[in-house]
Amino acid sequence: MLTVDLSSLDIGPGKRVLDLGCGEGRHIHHIYMQKDVLVYGLDLDLDSVKKTHDNCKKYFSLSKSKNENWLIAQGKCEYLPFKRESLDCIICCEVLEHIENYHRAIKEIWWSLKHGGMLVISVPRFLPERICWALADGYKYEKGGHIRIFKESPLKLEVQRLGFKFIKKHYAHGIHSPYWWLKCIKWEKRDTWLPVRLYHRLLVWDIMKSPRLTRSLDKLLTPIIGKSVVLYFKKVDKKW
């Protein structure tokens, strides 16, 4: 399940790409298939890091590439372990809503990116997220959960002020918002309530098979209630 349009990024031979807050590696697997790309995955959650590492070790061995051009590690967005201007692209997908000092994280991203490097940020879209907060107190107080709701325009302007040029945006995951609303309606039984379980099966079917029915429905709903907004930027010169 990709949130970022990888075809919009300048990823090619010799490029260094970081998936910041990589989770279980859904973007890493696709990025790695780009020939001779060095891909890094960084996440605070140790279980996710271990799972991503194990999956990469298992599936990347099947790749035609003779080199293991990947590295998965535990780390924090606010303290990136990379040299200044050493990365060509950073993907920060569904991360900033989880961390307190997201300003520091964006600055760290700026320092780590080369001049002209690409940054992609995705966060939950305001309206679908606001509905989740209204339906269930447990949603916003869950450990490791979302601590803020971003508005699209202020976030875009904030990133631009920190030294980035805005390129484009799009929305993603239109059929996922109702799933989270159902979970919030019965938050205490969110994993066992029958409507949630059935909807989850629908989403798995969509991810695994990409049937025309759900793909068409997602395309229709995404501009209206897409769960995520995805913002694309390019680093420009700026002195701190």
Task: Describe this protein's structure.
- With 240 residues, the chain is α/β, with parallel strands linked by helices.
- It has a domain of 159 residues: Rossmann fold (3-Layer(aba) Sandwich), CATH 3.40.50.
- It is 40% helix and 22% strand.
- It has a seven-stranded mixed β-sheet, sandwiched between helices.
- The model has no long low-confidence stretch (mean pLDDT 93).
Top keywords for this entry?
single chain; 240 residues; alpha/beta; Rossmann fold; 7 strands; 22% strand
List the helices and strands and how they pair.
Elements: E1 16-20, H1 26-32, E2 38-43, H2 46-59, E3 70-74, E4 87-93, H3 102-112, E5 113-124, H4 126-135, H5 137-141, H6 152-161, E6 164-172, H7 177-185, H8 194-209, H9 212-225, E7 228-235
Parallel strand pairs: 1-2, 1-4, 2-3, 4-5
Antiparallel strand pairs: 5-7, 6-7
